[in-house]
Design a protein that fits this description.
Layout (H helix, E strand, L loop, with lengths): L8 H12 L4 H21 L7 H7 L3 H13 L4 H29 L3 H102 L4 E5 L2 E7 L13 H17 L5 E6 L13 H19 L7 E7 L10 H7 L1 E6 L6 H10 L1
Helix pairs in contact: 1-2, 1-5, 2-3, 2-4, 6-10, 7-8
C-alpha cells in the first residue's frame, strides 16, 4: 500500500501517545522518540512500516533524537479525545485509499467476458483487414481487366474498320466483275452472231465449192480471201489473150456467182503462166501474156456483166508464182491459170477486236 506522505504534528503526537500509554515518563520519551523517528523514516521512504520500540529506535536513530524531545514536551498537551478522533480519521483515510486501490486493481484486470470480447474484436479486425486486402486486390484486377477491355475494344474497332474496308473493296471488285461479265456477255453475243455468220458462210462456201467444181472452177480459202482458180485452157486459146466461146460462157457463170454471193466485194484478177519462154506469139514476156489475159477477163466482167469497175483490178505474176512444178506437162498446164481473188469484206473495228479475243 501507498503510505500517506503528509502527517501533522498532532497526528505524530497522538500515535506516540497510544504507543506509550502505561509507561513512565522516561520510557514515554524514549518510545515516543523511536516511534516518531519510525514515522519520519516511513515518510521519507514513502512506505508504511509498523513501528515498535525496537524498530523505532533503528529507523528513527537519527531523526528520533531530534524529534524525541519535541514529542516528550508536547505529549502532556494531547488529550485522549483528540487522539482517538485523529486515529479514527486516519483509519477512515486508510480504508478509503484501500478501496480506491482495490477499484483500480479490479479495473486493471479484465474479466473473462471482456477478454472474449477483445478476442472477438481482434478477429473482426483481422477479417476486416483480409477483406480490405482482397478488395484492394480485386480493384487492381479490375483495373487491369479494364485496361485489357479497353485494348480489346480498340482492337475490335480496328477490326471493324478493316472489315468495312475489305467489304468496300469486295463490293467494288464485285461491281467490276459484274461489269466485266456484262462486257463478256456482250462479246459472247457478238461472237455468237459472227460465229453463226461464219457457220452460214462455211455452209454457203461448201455449197459454192460444189457449184463451181461442176464448172471446173476451184474455190479455196486463203489468207487473202476466197480464191477462184480457172485453168486457161477453159478460157483462152493457146498463146492468145482473147476469151474463147467456152471461156465467155464460163465467165458469165462466174460473174453471176460473184454478183449474187459477193456483192460489193473487191475483186483482184490475176494472170499466171508456166515457165516456157515466149517464142512465136509476139509477147515480150510471160508477164505481158499474163497481164493481157487478166485485163481481158476484167473487161469481160465489167463491160459485159456489170461488175463495178471501182471494185476490180488486174495484175500479172507471169511464171513467178507457180501453183505446182513446171517439170511436167501436167504441172505446166496447172500453172497456166487465171485467178480471181475475192478480198475479205470490211468489218468494223469492234468486230475485229471481238474476233481477235475469240481466237
Amino acid at each position: 500500500m501507498k503510505a500517506l506522505k503528509v502527517l501533522t504534528l498532532s497526528t505524530l503526537l497522538a500515535v506516540t501517545a497510544l504507543a506509550v500509554s502505561g509507561c513512565s515518563s522516561a520510557q514515554k520519551g524514549a518510545a515516543g522518540a523511536g516511534l516518531a523517528g519510525g514515522i519520519a523514516g516511513a515518510v521519507v521512504g514513502n512506505n508504511w512500516v509498523p513501528v515498535g520500540p525496537t524498530t523505532g529506535a533503528v529507523i528513527g536513530g537519527s531523526s528520533g533524537a531530534a524529534i524525541g524531545g519535541l514529542v516528550g514536551d508536547a505529549y502532556d498537551q494531547v488529550t485522549q479525545a483528540d487522539t482517538e478522533r485523529e486515529l479514527e480519521n486516519l483509519r477512515a483515510q486508510l480504508t478509503e485509499k484501500e478501496n480506491e486501490l482495490a477499484a483500480l486493481n479490479g479495473k486493471a484486470a479484465p474479466s473473462a467476458d471482456q477478454l472474449a470480447e477483445l478476442e472477438s474484436l481482434r478477429n473482426q479486425l483481422a477479417d476486416a483487414q483480409a477483406k480490405l486486402a482482397q478488395a484492394q486486390a480485386d480493384a487492381a484486377d479490375k483495373a487491369s481487366l479494364g485496361g485489357e477491355l479497353a485494348a480489346l475494344k480498340a482492337q475490335i474497332n480496328d477490326l471493324k474498320d478493316a472489315l468495312q474496308k475489305a467489304q468496300d473493296e469486295a463490293d467494288a471488285l464485285r461491281q467490276q466483275i459484274n461489269d466485266k461479265e456484262t462486257q463478256v456477255g456482250d462479246l459472247r453475243n457478238k461472237i455468237d452472231v459472227l460465229q453463226t455468220s461464219l457457220n452460214a458462210r462455211d455452209q454457203a462456201t461448201d455449197a459454192l465449192k460444189k457449184q463451181l467444181a461442176d464448172m471446173n472452177v476451184k474455190l479455196e480459202e486463203t489468207s487473202r480471201g476466197l480464191q477462184m482458180t480457172i485453168v486457161d485452157s477453159l478460157l483462152y486459146t493457146p498463146g492468145k489473150a482473147e476469151l474463147s466461146a467456152d471461156g465467155q460462157e464460163l465467165i458469165a457463170k462466174v460473174a453471176g456467182v460473184l454478183k449474187s454471193k459477193f456483192p460489193n466485194r473487191e475483186l483482184l484478177v490475176e494472170g499466171h503462166t508456166d515457165n516456157q519462154p515466149i517464142k512465136m506469139s509476139g509477147w515480150r514476156s510471160n508477164w505481158e501474156l499474163g497481164a493481157a489475159r487478166a485485163l481481158t477477163m476484167l473487161h469481160e466482167l465489167v463491160e459485159v456483166h456489170g461488175i463495178d469497175p471501182a471494185l476490180v483490178s488486174a495484175s500479172s505474176y507471169g511464171e513467178f508464182r507457180p501453183a505446182t512444178t513446171n517439170a511436167t506437162a501436167e504441172g505446166r498446164r496447172d500453172n497456166r491459170r487465171a485467178v480471181i481473188v475475192i478480198l475479205p469484206e470490211k468489218i468494223s473495228s469492234v468486230e475485229r477486236k471481238s474476233l481477235a479475243k475469240a481466237d
